[in-house]
Amino acid sequence: MSSNQLYQYSILSALMRRLATQETGISIGDLLAHGDHGLGTVTGLNGEVIVLEGEMFHYPVSGDAPRRLTDNDDDDDDDDDDDDDDVTGETLPFAMVTFFHPSMTKHLSSLSMSTLATSLAPLLPDRQNSFLAVKATAWFKYVTVRSTPAQSYPHEHLSVLAQRQTRHTAEYISGTLFGFWSPAYSMGMSLRGFHMHFIAADRHAGGHVVDFETETKDNKNVTLEVAVMDEYTVRVPSTAEFHREIISSGNATDMMAAEGGAE
Question: Could you tell me where the Acidic residues compositional bias lies (predicted)?
């Protein structure tokens, strides 16, 4: 795929309807062929995934050390000890990725969840019916992330899991936010507004962003990069499980409770 085309595997309303099995998901190698930045989740909805500069990391809800997810064929001839903790063979039941090339770059003295939308001017509101990929690299005063627990049985509903979400706040930490702004009409396919994930510079912390605030350190400001995406490709699973029931656009309130960030 070319730069700044959004590739999405499955749809959010299907995820809400419990379709998160190994068989329903896309392989890591297949997904990374369509983008080098993005986000998603893993089989059974156990935690959060972020893709940054071609590398994929999974942050389990337990708070255990993150896992770097690789394709089965990756690094076969690489003897680097850092690969010992890599995980292969995982699939993702939902993911959004793009080959990220910013259309606009800003250097800001500060940024927060409440100012993110206004900081994207003039792309918001001028391109509010396009999809946007958003990346912010900064020193964070704090970042609050949440993770969805794994399904306790197959097909447990995401709205039920959302009631058991855990939240963690990391303070005074260097890292990157990456995610997407999706227009209102896409609700059900994706999540309207912002859907952002975080990854620390040392890779030790990450998750789905609930709130954040940056501050200046060593005279370094926030680097905010944004890409406009006018091409949106959705691939749906071909499995019998996915096509067993009619999938509607879903309940917007439940989706925002389970996955919502800022609008």
Answer: 72-87
pLDDT in tens, 84-109: 467 778 899 999 999 999 999 999 99
The predicted structure's pLDDT at residue 157: 67
Q: Which residues pair with 182 in a beta bridge?
A: 193
- pTM of structure: 0.88
DSSP the chain: --TTEEEEES-HHHHHTT---TTTSEEHHHHHTT-SEEEEE-GGG-SEEEEETTEEEEE-TT-PPPEEEE-TTTTTT---GGGGG-EES-EESEEEEE----SEEEEES--BGGGHHHHTTTHHHHTTTSEEEEEEEEEEEEEEEEEPPPPSSTT--HHHHGGG-EEEEEEEEEEEEEEEEE-GGGBTTB-SEEEEEEEETTSS-EEEEEEEEE--BTTB-EEEEEEEE-EEEEE---STTTTSS---S--HHHHHHHH----
Domains annotated on the chain, with CATH: 5-259 (3.30.1330.80)
Query: Side chain identity at 262, as an amino acid letter?
Result: A
